[in-house]
Amino acid sequence: VREVEALAALVAETANKLGATVIVDIGSGHGALARVLASSWGLRVLGIDCSDYHVERAQIKMEKSDVGSTG
Question: Who is most buried in 14, 30, 44, 54, counting CB within 10 A?
Answer without folding.
Answer: 30
